Amino acid sequence: MKITKTENYTLIKPAEESINIFLNNLEKNIFNFNGEHLILDFSEKINTTLKELLLFLKLSVEHKQNGTSFVIVFEGVEIDEIPDDINVVPTFTEALDIIEMDAIERDLGF
Hints:
The chain has 110 residues and is α/β, with parallel strands linked by helices. The chain has helices at 19-29, 50-53, 57-65, 92-108, and strands at 2-5, 10-13, 38-41, 70-73, 87-89.
């Protein structure tokens, strides 16, 4: 995993060959990211499928319940096929927008 922390979010890019290995590593270390907004950047991962992205659904739901954002950057997935419980966007800029919108929703009590 390649990790970049900023004041507003933590960006994680998979360095592992397999999405499953990356997920296992992330789950083992998720406690290091408590209270942080996470952006998982799969933009450089080729041949990633929606099925693989949905493996992160549980982490997404847990993060949302803890009052933090969880966004996956990946281009090439039909937006209509993605459940509402997980945020998948095609660009990094849109991931930052999602974090901002989530913060507004939390401030408004949604």
